[in-house]
Write a structure and sequence with these properties.
Its EC number is 1.11.1.7. It is found in: Secreted. Keywords: Calcium, Disulfide bond, Glycoprotein, Heme, Hydrogen peroxide, Iron, Metal-binding, Oxidoreductase, Peroxidase, Secreted, Signal. Belongs to the peroxidase family. Classical plant (class III) peroxidase subfamily. Belongs to the peroxidase family. Ascorbate peroxidase subfamily. α3 packs across α6. It is built from 15 helices and two strands. The protein starts with a helix and ends with a helix. By secondary structure, it is an all-alpha fold. 46% of the residues lie in helices and 2% in strands. The protein binds protoporphyrin IX containing FE and 2-acetamido-2-deoxy-beta-D-glucopyranose (NAG) (4 copies). The site of protoporphyrin IX containing FE has 25 residues, from α4, α9 and β1.
């Protein structure tokens, strides 16, 4: 049994101490335990003696933030996805200079990661390090913040394998472009892109369910409106989008899930079945025969979606992680530690990685 939407909504409307009591009760009763193998070096109990209060510190702080602005949950979930897809879940997205991070503006996914999400992660890092010392990585804090975002927005709770270390290198523009699929991708292109990361069709459909919360800028989908309207888009839905985005480059945003924009549920799949998916990458999941039945099964059964989402998040959350003595535990999530220069990868190594990537 997973905590139902009702239970976690209830938790989100009562007083602060109550949520801690309630959440531990709900979590204690629920499973949220994926059977996906844990990679060597990570474990579910990694901080149980070095930082036993970790989950509560993060949940408590995020709960306070979400009280006034639940939309921040989407920003934090997406941040973890970008971290993991580009160069592995190593906190690289958080570094100043990362092409999908806070200070690089040239990459197409530029500026659409919320500035606030980076600040929240650094604030969480300060709280955690204050209580436990510098033992918890920024990459783990990002993974846990994504988990709490899903849970506090009404989604399932799940346990996160921990022990990630923070990388020393920021992600380059070509890393970012090669690894983050654009919203214009069709299902075939998405499946190819995710296969590089050992993620399959079930994972693709489940992870895309992250679009059950959050917003998008017009520029991410107006290619489906202008100059020619995508015939797979429902007419009323398209008309409304044209009001929000009167030109292809209007600087405005719209919700990703038109039914329940701030609740983590399976309504995104109902949207797709009604041709109300915002991106080609969303809507084509219901067109392509390899994913259509998976979409339908999630639309009909929210628990099934939650289970597959948990598995896919645990898989995604372990992509190319650094463990043991690799990398470092950053003292400030935005910058490498001062003494870590010696471990910097050479430019030659980075070039080789990019060549490898571009062969996919
Ligand atoms: C499968 C390929 C994916 C594509 C092509 C894609 C594309 C996008 C795009 C274009 C946006 C809107 C950006 C903007 O214009 O502001 C967006 C937002 C978002 N994405 Fe994805 N995404 C993908 C996968 C994921 C995954 C795996 C997750 C998490 C599990 C995720 C979670 C989100 C969230 C929560 C938002 C809203 C962010 C906010 O409100 O600030 N996406 N995505
Ligand atoms: C984002 O990147 C695109 C090109 O990839 C560029 O045209 C646009 O100006 C950039 N936006 C910002 C706000 O930097
Ligand atoms: C994808 O992989 C999971 C295991 O991680 C498996 O349960 C599922 O059946 C696979 N789906 C497809 C479509 O192969
Ligand atoms: C878009 O609008 C927002 C809020 O109105 C503003 O902060 C931002 O700078 C604008 N972005 C661009 C690229 O004009
Ligand atoms: C972290 O580093 C950034 C970039 O150098 C800096 O602006 C910020 O003040 C630092 N934060 C803390 C808490 O030291």
């Amino acid at each position: 049994m997973f905590p139902s939407v009702k239970q976690s909504k209830m938790a989100a409307t009562k007083g602060f101490p109550l949520i801690l009591v309630l959440s531990s009760l709900i979590i204690g009763l629920s499973q949220g335990q994926s059977t996906i193998p844990v990679v060597p070096g990570l474990s579910y109990t990694f901080y149980s003696s070095s930082c036993p209060g970790l989950d509560f510190i993060i949940r408590g702080h995020l709960w306070q933030i979400f009280q006034s602005d639940l939309t921040q949950a989407a920003g934090l979930l997406r941040l973890h996805f970008h971290d993991c897809f580009v160069q592995g879940c190593d906190g690289s997205v958080l570094l100043d200079g990362s092409a999908s991070g806070p200070s690089e503006k040239e990459a197409p996914p530029n500026l659409t990661l919320r500035a606030q999400a980076f600040k929240i992660i650094n604030d969480l890092r300060a709280l955690v390090h204050q209580q436990c010392g510098r033992v918890v990585s920024c990459a783990d804090i990002t993974a846990l913040a994504a988990r709490e975002s899903v849970f506090l927005a009404g989604g399932p709770f799940y346990w996160v394998p921990l022990g990630r270390r923070d990388g020393l290198n920021f992600a380059t523009l070509s890393d970012t472009l090669a690894n983050l699929p654009p919203p214009s991708f069709n299902t075939g292109q998405l499946l190819d892109s995710l296969a590089n990361k050992k993620l399959n069709a079930t994972d693709l459909v489940a992870l895309s369910g992250g679009h059950t919360i959050g917003i998008s800028h017009c520029t991410s989908f107006t290619d489906r409106l202008y100059p020619t309207q995508d015939p797979t888009m429902a007419q009323t839905f398209a008309n409304n989008l044209k009001v929000t985005c009167p030109t292809a480059t209007t600087n405005a945003t719209t919700n990703l899930d038109i039914r329940t924009p701030n609740v983590f549920d399976n309504k995104y799949y109902i949207d797709l079945m009604n041709r109300q998916g915002l991106f080609t990458s969303d809507q084509d999941l219901y067109t392509d025969s390899r994913t259509k039945d998976i979409v339908t099964s999630f639309a009909l059964n929210q628990n099934l979606f939650f289970q597959k989402f948990i598995d896919a998040m645990v898989k995604m959350g372990q992509l190319n992680v650094l463990t043991g003595t690799q990398g470092e535990i950053r003292a400030n999530c935005s910058v490498r530690n001062a003494n870590s220069n010696l471990h910097l990868k050479s430019v030659v190594e980075i070039d080789q990685e990019q060549q490898t990537l571009s062969q996919f």
